[in-house]
Amino acid sequence: MKKSGLMLLVATMLWGGVLMAQGSPNVPLLAHINDYPSVGYNDCWGYVAPDGREYALLGVQNGTSILDITDTDNIVEINFIPSATSLWKDIKTYQHYAYVVTEASGGMQIIDLS
Question: Under 8 Å CB-to-CB from 27, ≥6 apart: which residues?
């Protein structure tokens, strides 16, 4: 009995990650971005401009990438703002500004999105 319980526990642990990686129904993948494969990504935030254009603010270990995602068939990086290299980054927006902070040196970056 103990042996079968242990086997069940091991099987659950091994297959649990695979089962969690399955796609979600009714949630299509529109694009896959990996413009900086040699560094890691650490945050993602969205912004909708007053004219209706949509932007993704993507935290990269060495900066912030601003992507125009209005046309999901043609996603374009419109700017890259370098920053101190950091594993952790947080990006938030208020009105037409993006606020970017890390635990690294360099303080807070304020990006005008207008």
Answer: none
Rounded CA separation 46/69 (Å): 10
Domain ranges for the chain: 33-112
> What digits encode the pLDDT tens for the residues 38-90?
888 899 999 999 999 999 999 999 999 999 999 999 999 999 999 999 889 99
Sequential DSSP letters for 31-88? ----S-TTS-EEEEEEEE-TTS-EEEEEEETTEEEEEE-SSTTS-EEEEEEE----S-
Count Cβ neighbours within 10 Å for each residue of 93-103 and write b for 16 or more, e otherwise.
Answer: beeeebebbbe
- CA nearest to 111, candidates 64, 70, 71: 64
* pTM for this model (two decimals): 0.74
**Residue among 85, 43, 96 nearest 65 (CA):** 43
> Rounded to the nearest 10 degrees, how much is the dihedral formed by the CA atoms of 19, 25, 30, 36?
-20
